[in-house]
Amino acid sequence: MKSFYITTPIYYANDVPHIGHAYTTVAADVAARWRRLRGDTVRFLTGTDEHGSKIAQAAAAKGQSPADYLEGVVAHYKALWTRLNISHDDFIRTTEERHKRVVQQVFERLLKQGDIYLGSYEGWYCVPDETFWAQGDLIDGRCPTCGRLVEKIKEESYFLRLSAYEKRLLDYYEQNPDFLQPKFRAPEIVQFVKGGLNDLSVSRVKVAWGIPVVSNPRHTVYVWIDALSNYITALGYDLEKPGPLFNQFWPADIHLVGKEIYRFHAVIWPVLLMALGLPLPKQVFAHGWWTVEGEKMSKSKGNVVDPHIVAADYGVDAFRYFVLREVPFGSDGDFSLSALAGRYNAELANALGNLLNRVLTLLEKNFDGSLDVPTDPVLVPARAGDWLADYDGVLSRLAFSEALEKVMGLVSRANKYADEQAPWKLVKTDLAKAHPVLVEMARALKLAALALHPFMPTVTQEMWSQLGESEPLAQAAPDLIKSGTIGFTPGQKIKKGSPLFPRKEVPGKAGSGPASKPA
Ligand code: ME8
């Protein structure tokens, strides 16, 4: 059995999640669910990044201890993942003992072998914000977030010797052309490394809320060694004796990240792994960023999209569908309620939901719900193995919008076939001719339900049951994908239920909009 390990970034626990965090996590969930449907053994990791002055400050602003504050934020994350039907196998928090202990081991090992050394760090420091800035970050010599004057500081710091790894990195990129994904983002990384790497400051004496350096506890580990290591600490990596999960799932198949942290995953993380003598992940994939109604999301603009609210208005499955359908995965995208309502109505309510409803109604009224009749496979070949193999290839490239186009192409062929054959007329004139037409349309819907399942796990199971399948979709899938046989068993009858996607009013048009707007 193939094993598959996919991760999301660990999100900063200084604030509650928004649509951007949900996007990455839903995408990883779809990839993980598809692999499970194929019968692979999957490990899907997400979690929270919990150290650093930003978190200590956020806690202080609420009059809470960091630990209490973090409990609240982490509960928000976990509740959102439950709500969005995220099927992660583990949730790592960087304040957990399993993580801290290994980060400390890793730091000491790299120090001992000379990949980490003690030097001094020079930079700009915003005292009230307790944040370090590089010269280039400053705005008119001031802190870019609070606008106050910054101080030039020079202090002791440990450094990771990135500069020693330039050649090995470049060789690795060249020999592993699938590592940097999507391909159009690779040149940016290669150029960056070719431009020469500076050693990276990896400790601070001014940041108390962090993992102490064992051999010099005045220092705490600063950002990236702490954060990136989560991908192995969660598998029970340990310098003395890596656990069984590590042996089974490392190297990761895909680290999914947003484009702003691509470089850290494509440069620093490989260096850390090389220094530890560990294999590198097979792929780092950076997706694009969402804006909202054309603007950057920000608290001050008040346009941060809360996925809970969108899911309440449109349903969890439609939310999951929309974010991966709207924008080719890898590119930037814009979220708008009118685009969501438009796609929901056109693709989910009209094309998919109505098709199912029409087919089931006609089968129920005229054939006692029976699916038991041989059909001429016009929409779906008798063996749909090629279609599924192609679909598998598309999803393996994480080309989610392309995958959804492929399924919606099948659905629109089924709708066109319905228009041509007009089974609602045929049932009045030629029942024997009408039956196979309807069952052929049901076959297309069965294949669509299977293919859409990772995107819309609940609704597709409902479609599946309405089509009279008794074994749960997720259980039936591995054999079905292997055999490619999409049909119905003798005596199988549909179980018509309520319509799957009730139509919505498009916001801005006359009548009511969705119940509420994202806050
Ligand atoms: O960077 N559009 O955490 P973070 C799309 N802790 N995706 C978005 C987004 C947007 N507008 N906003 C956020 C961190 N994301 C570190 C990571 S990993 C070892 C450490 C998503 O809370 C996207 O996946 O700032 C991005 O990379 C991530 O949230 C940043 O989350």
Question: Could you describe the 3D structure shown?
Answer:
It is a single chain. The chain contains 19 helices and 14 strands. It has 519 residues and is α/β, with parallel strands linked by helices. It has a domain at 336-483: Isoleucyl-tRNA Synthetase, Domain 1 (Orthogonal Bundle). Helix 12 packs across helix 13, helix 13 runs antiparallel to helix 17 and helix 15 (400-421) packs antiparallel against helix 17 (431-452). Residues 510-519 have low confidence and may be disordered. The protein binds ligand ME8.
What's the arrangement of secondary structure elements?
Elements: E1 3-12, H1 19-38, E2 41-49, H2 53-61, H3 66-83, E3 90-93, H4 97-112, E4 116-126, E5 131-133, E6 151-160, H5 166-175, E7 180-181, H6 186-194, E8 200-201, E9 203-204, E10 220-221, H7 224-228, H8 230-233, H9 244-249, E11 254-258, H10 262-276, E12 284-287, E13 290-292, H11 307-314, H12 316-326, E14 333-335, H13 337-367, H14 385-396, H15 400-421, H16 423-429, H17 431-452, H18 457-466, H19 473-483
Parallel strand pairs: 1-2, 1-11, 2-3, 7-12, 11-12, 13-14
Antiparallel strand pairs: 4-5, 4-6, 6-8, 9-10
Helix pairs in contact: 2-3, 11-12, 12-13, 12-15, 13-15, 13-17, 15-17, 16-17, 17-18
The structure holds ligand ME8.
From the structure above, extract its key features.
519 residues, alpha/beta, Isoleucyl-tRNA Synthetase, Domain 1, 14 strands, 47% helix, disordered C terminus, binds ligand ME8
Bound molecules: ligand ME8
Q: Superfamily at the CATH H level of the domain at 336-483?
A: Isoleucyl-tRNA Synthetase, Domain 1
Architecture (CATH level 2) name of the domain at 336-483: Orthogonal Bundle
List the strand order in the largest sheet: 3-2-1-11-12-7
Please tell me how large the radius of gyration is: 26 Å
Residue stretches low in confidence (pLDDT < 50, at least 5 long) are 510-519
**Tell me, what's the shape?**
elongated
